[in-house]
Design brief:
Elements (H helix, E strand, L loop, with lengths): L7 H6 L7 E4 L3 E5 L9 E5 L11 H22 L3 E5 L15 E6 L15 H14 L2
Antiparallel strand pairs: 1-2, 2-3, 3-5, 4-5
Helix pairs in contact: 2-3
The structure holds adenosine monophosphate (AMP).
């Protein structure tokens, strides 16, 4: 299946839809998942129009994992989770629902189980507050 230019993340990348952005550079964009599995759940994506991991070239892969490390560090500093899970789904059979490659950064807390994938919409005020906390922790 070819890359769909009208997928939600393509629209966010073009500025046609809003996002709770926490980090951006020339190659990557990171914003909060609006249906977070836990507080601080963040998505990092390459700006290149790629659907999955196999469409990403080596150079872009380096930029992506570098951005993931940076943003995950900020999430760690902002929320002090007990652990951080990285997740990246390739294809509908794997559970991918948005067909633009992205890495999930999912904070894990010892005394609570992460919520189900893409099920519970968070409140805007909470997402704004969480995005600000992560932005403040990026360095
Ligand atoms: P995946 O199933 O791996 O493709 O993940 C897509 C993720 O995008 C899900 O966790 C959704 O909650 C999340 N999501 C869907 N729409 C938006 C949006 N407009 N802004 C931020 N996150 C979104």
């Amino acid at each position: 299946m070819p890359y769909d230019n009208d997928n939600i993340f393509a629209k966010i990348l073009r500025g046609e839809l809003p996002a709770f952005t926490v980090y951006e550079n020339d190659q990557c964009l990171a914003f909060l998942d609006v249906m977070p599995q836990s507080d601080g759940h963040t998505l990092v994506l390459p700006k290149q129009p790629v659907q999955n991991l196999f469409d990403l070239d080596d150079e872009a892969a380096k930029y992506l994992i570098t951005a993931v490390r940076k943003v995950a560090g900020a999430v760690q500093d902002a929320f002090s989770p007990d652990g951080i899970r990285l997740m990246q789904l390739n294809g509908e059979a794997a559970g991918q629902t948005v067909m633009h490659l992205h890495m999930h950064i999912i904070p894990c807390y010892a005394h609570s189980t992460p919520l189900s994938h893409a099920q519970h919409m968070a409140e805007t005020e909470i997402l704004e507050e969480h995005a600000a906390k992560i932005r403040a922790a990026i360095h």
